[in-house]
Amino acid sequence: MAGRYLLRACTKLRFANPNVAGRPLQRTMGTLKGVPTDDEQATGLERRALQALKKGKDPYSMMKPKEYAGTRAEPHIVPCIGTKRLVGCLCEEDNTAIVWFWLHEGEAQRCPSCGSHYQLVHSELPH
Ligand SMILES: [Zn+2]
Asked: 118, 75 in Cβ contact below 8 A?
């Protein structure tokens, strides 16, 4: 039934504007601008995520995290909505065991095993 309405709308458009006749069927859908993009039709959470990505933000950690040296001057940044967060450090590239420790708000802390510095940074999740 919807296909019949679409076909009827297309034939009306072809009679009204002969230039439309040469276009494929998908170009005549909706507002004559073609198939809507993700930006035009996204709603809710997806729309908020797309808008945040345009502003350079990454509210849902969808992008690869930035790498830090882990030194005192440039510690690993750990976003957190509270005052402490459990952090797992894979001290060396080939390690099979993860060293877990609590990272608290305030000064940068060191991993008890390898000595890399971690800094807790308060972040807000969008509502
Ligand atoms: Zn470590």
From this structure: yes
**Model confidence over 40-74: pLDDT tens digits?**
899 998 898 889 889 988 877 778 878 899 999 99
Can you give the residue ranges of every domain in the chain? 2-54, 76-122
State the number of CA atoms in the 13 A half-sphere of 79 facing the CB: 10
Structure tokens at 83: 């005052």
C-alpha of residue 86 to centroid of ligand 1, in Å: 13
What is the domain class of 76-122 according to CATH?
mainly beta
Which two structure tokens, joined as six digits, stand for 45? 């959470």
Q: What is the pTM of this model?
A: 0.57
What distance in angstroms lies between residue 98's CA and the mean position of ligand 1's atoms? 8
Q: Please tell me the distance from the alpha carbon of residue 39 to that of residue 51, in angstroms, as a whole number.
A: 8
Tell me the CA–centroid distance for residue 12 and ligand 1, in Å. 69
The CA distance from 118 to 21, in Å, is 63
Tell me the CA–centroid distance for residue 89 and ligand 1, in Å.
4
